[in-house]
C-alpha cells in the first residue's frame, strides 16, 4: 500500500515509517519544514510538505494514498481545546477525500481519557467531562466516518508514555524537572498505574491496524497494563541520586506543574482484545528496563 503518514518525522512516526517500509509499503510522510523533510526521507519515506493547518496539503496527501495513519498532534496544553479543534479539522479534511473508498484512516488517541482506577478495555467508554475529553471528539469523528462515509476508520489509544531510546516526550521532561528541583516526587502513595508501550511495538501495531483493522474499531497500544508510578520514579530517584517522596497533587505542582495531575492518574489498561484480533505480540523491553538502559546517559 501507499500510506500517507502525518507526524512522520516524530518519535512514533519515524518508527512507523520504518516498520511500514520494512514490510513492503510505500510511505508519503507529512513534513512541515526542511528538518522534517530530512528526517522523513532518512526513515525511508517520500516527504510531503505541509502541516496540520494546511488543509489542501492534507487532502492531496490523503488523495495520493491507499490509506492514512494520522499521528500528528499539537501538544499545546496551554490551548488544548484549540489543538483538538485543529486535529478534528485535519481528520475531516482527510476523511472527505477518503469518503466512499473504504480506505483505512487510522488516528492516534490516548488512554488518559478513560475512567480511572479500574482496568479499561477497548470497549470502555471515555469520560467526557474532564480536561482531556476534547480529544474524544476526534475519535467520535472517525467512528462517524466509518459508519456514514464508508471509510475504514480506526482509533488507536496510546499510553501516557510511549518509550524508547531518543524519547523526546513526557519522561525526559519530568526527569529534567526533578533534576532542577533537587528531589523526585510522586503523588499520594505512588500506587497510580500507567500503562506503557515501546515505540517499536507501537509501530508494529499501527501497521497491523492498517493491514487488517476493522472499520469503526478501537485498539489499545498497550504492552504493560499498569506500571506503578512509585516503581517508575524509584528508578529516576536512584539514577539522579535524589530523594524520593510522596506529596499531594497541590504540593507536587510546585515541582512538576501540570504533570502532577498526570502522576496521580491511575490508568490501568488492557490490550487483550487488540492482541487477539490482530495477532499483535509486544516484544520490546518494558518501561522500567528501558528507563534503566536509555534515559540517563
What does this protein structure show overall?
With 297 residues, the chain is α/β, with parallel strands linked by helices. α1 packs across α7 and α8 runs parallel beside α12. The chain has a 7-stranded parallel β-sheet with strand order 3-2-1-4-5-6-10, sandwiched between helices. Strands 7-9-11 form a 3-stranded mixed β-sheet. α5 (136-148) links the parallel β5 and β6. The protein is globular. The model has no long low-confidence stretch (mean pLDDT 95). The chain is built from 12 helices and 12 strands. Residues 3-219 form the NAD-dependent epimerase/dehydratase domain. InterPro entries: Epimerase_deHydtase (IPR001509), NAD(P)-bd_dom_sf (IPR036291), NAD(P)-dependent_oxidoreduct (IPR051783). This is NAD-dependent epimerase/dehydratase domain-containing protein.
Q: Tell me the span between the first and last alpha carbons.
A: 39 Å
Return residue spans where pLDDT drops below 50 for at least 5 consecutive residues: none
Q: Determine the structural class based on helices, strands and strand pairing.
A: alpha/beta
Q: Percent of residues in beta strands?
A: 15-25%
Name the average pLDDT.
95
In percent, how helical is the residue content?
A: 40-55%
Rg over alpha carbons: 19 Å
Q: How would you sum up the global shape?
A: globular
Read across the widest sheet, the strand sequence of neighbours is 3-2-1-4-5-6-10
Helix-strand string: EHEHEHEHEHEEHEEHEEHEHHHH
Characterize the largest beta sheet: strand count, sense, and whether it forms a barrel: 7 strands, parallel
Tally of helical runs: 12
Please tally the β strands and state the result.
12
Protein name: NAD-dependent epimerase/dehydratase domain-containing protein
Pfam families: Epimerase
InterPro entries: Epimerase_deHydtase, NAD(P)-bd_dom_sf, NAD(P)-dependent_oxidoreduct
GO molecular function, one term: aldehyde dehydrogenase (NAD+) activity
Amino acid at each position: 500500500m501507499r500510506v500517507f503518514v502525518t507526524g512522520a518525522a516524530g518519535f512514533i512516526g519515524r518508527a512507523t515509517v520504518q516498520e511500514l517500509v520494512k514490510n513492503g509499503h510505500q510511505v508519503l510522510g507529512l513534513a512541515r519544514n526542511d528538518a522534517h523533510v530530512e528526517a522523513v526521507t532518512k526513515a525511508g519515506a517520500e516527504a510531503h510538505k505541509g502541516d496540520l493547518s494546511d488543509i489542501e496539503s492534507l487532502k492531496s496527501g490523503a488523495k495520493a494514498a491507499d490509506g492514512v495513519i494520522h499521528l500528528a498532534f499539537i501538544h499545546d496544553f496551554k490551548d488544548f481545546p484549540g489543538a483538538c479543534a485543529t486535529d478534528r479539522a485535519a481528520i475531516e479534511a482527510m476523511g472527505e477525500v477518503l469518503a466512499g473508498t473504504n480506505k483505512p484512516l487510522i488516528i492516534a488517541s490516548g488512554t488518559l481519557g478513560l475512567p480511572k482506577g479500574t482496568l479499561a478495555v477497548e470497549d470502555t467508554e471515555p469520560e467526557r467531562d474532564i480536561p482531556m475529553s476534547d480529544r474524544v471528539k476526534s475519535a467520535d469523528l472517525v467512528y462517524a466516518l466509518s459508519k456514514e462515509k464508508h471509510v475504514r476508520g480506526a482509533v488507536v489509544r496510546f499510553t501516557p508514555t510511549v518509550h524508547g531510546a531518543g524519547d523526546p516526550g513526557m519522561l525526559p521532561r519530568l526527569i529534567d524537572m526533578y533534576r532542577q528541583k533537587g528531589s523526585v516526587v510522586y503523588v499520594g502513595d505512588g500506587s497510580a498505574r500507567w500503562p506503557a508501550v515501546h515505540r517499536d511495538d507501537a509501530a508494529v501495531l499501527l501497521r497491523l491496524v492498517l493491514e487488517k483493522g476493522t472499520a469503526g474499531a478501537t485498539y489499545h497500544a498497550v504492552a504493560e497494563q499498569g506500571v506503578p508510578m512509585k516503581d517508575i520514579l524509584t528508578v529516576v530517584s536512584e539514577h539522579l541520586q535524589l530523594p524520593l517522596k510522596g506529596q499531594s497533587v497541590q504540593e507536587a505542582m510546585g515541582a512538576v506543574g501540570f504533570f502532577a495531575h498526570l502522576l496521580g492518574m491511575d490508568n490501568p489498561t488492557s490490550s487483550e482484545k487488540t492482541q487477539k484480533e490482530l495477532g499483535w505480540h509486544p516484544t520490546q523491553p518494558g518501561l522500567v528496563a528501558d528507563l534503566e538502559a536509555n534515559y540517563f546517559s
